[in-house]
Amino acid sequence: MKCAPEIFYLWSFGKGAELGRMRRLWETIGGIALAIVAISCSNDSASHGCESPCDEPDAQACYTFGSGESSLIARAKCELDEKAGCFQWNFVEACSETCENDVCDPELKPDPIIPPPSSCIEGKYACFGKTLKQCKKDSAGETTWDTIKTCSSSCKATAGKCSEELPSCTLTNGVTAIVRQWTDGDTVWVIPKPSDACNDYEFDAKENRWKQIRWRIRIHGIDAPECSKGKNKYYYYTCIRDSKYTNNNERYGYESWEWAQNLLGFGSEIVLTCDEYDSKTKICSYDATADDDADDDKVVYNRFLAYIGYSKNSASYDFSTELAREGLAFSNTKFKSNKRAAICAASKEAKDAKKNIWSLGNSVSDVLSKMGSTKKKGFSNMPRLCGW
What we know:
By secondary structure, this protein is mostly beta strands. The chain has 3 domains: about 1-110, no CATH class; about 115-165, no CATH class; about 175-385, CATH 2.40.50.90. Helices cover about 15% and strands about 35% of the residues. The protein has 6 helices and 25 strands. It has a 5-stranded mixed β-barrel with strand order 13-14-17-23-21. Strands 3-4-5 form a 3-stranded antiparallel β-sheet, with no helix packed on it. Strand 15 and strand 16 form a beta hairpin. The chain is globular, with a radius of gyration of 25 Å. The N and C termini lie far apart (about 70 Å).
């Protein structure tokens, strides 16, 4: 292995930097531009099948897998590839937006609540990082922060407990969530909004660490056009531009995803509601597609079936209705929906205005044919069920 020092000038402003295939060393002094010396190694193992060679076993770092629209920012670990006979960066955890100091999306993780000494009110709890403390009086009658315990996952000051002592957050009817990543126009990954009422982390026994709970949502009441996905075998699949239209990449599939991404991007706060949920737990039901030839035969997907509510300019909106109003989704009349009337009315507005998918034809069958879709059977009753 041959290594040579290289200089990188980074405007850090107090944050770490991701250097991809290179080992990173950094210092931060007052948030100014710094010269960072990194060791760039030309590893002979690259020629023996290692696509992402590294030279420090068990080291962890931020790493970008792939390139272009199919790239994936992730936390990676330097491990031995026995087949290739070399050490290379292996995927550990996908990041939605950023990776800093070997941590995925640090902006999503709430800052530790570190109250000033003057805020010490007897009986109150506070979190100092993962350490839970309570304000108590000492022998001299002075109030001071007394350590109660150090938490494994995170600390909840209002509850006066560690996260792991609370029940896990569940996707119940009316829960508030935060958007992480749109897969396409009608499927999105979200996380529970941090709350002192439940634990938004779950323990991964395989990795022996706490990980943020994530939910995959299939949006109820609509069916957006399909799109080609950026293939990353590690975590997310998401739409990419592709001018070759097929039943897996229909016209306006990318535009539907793009509209959703622009409206409710990473970090957006939403409210999830559902038509069907468990009567005892109130947990929303999973998405299930019935086989056309057997009513009792269903394919159940690992997706919660829910509507997305959001606020804009002090007004409340339903995502399903608004995507249909943009002419970027059909009313999914193949399944029951409590919002069908509103979604159908919005679809009719888009149809009359010839917006997006409705610019392709005057009837549902014409539109589906020109989209390159194979969904004709599923939407044949849409005009009748929508009352058009």
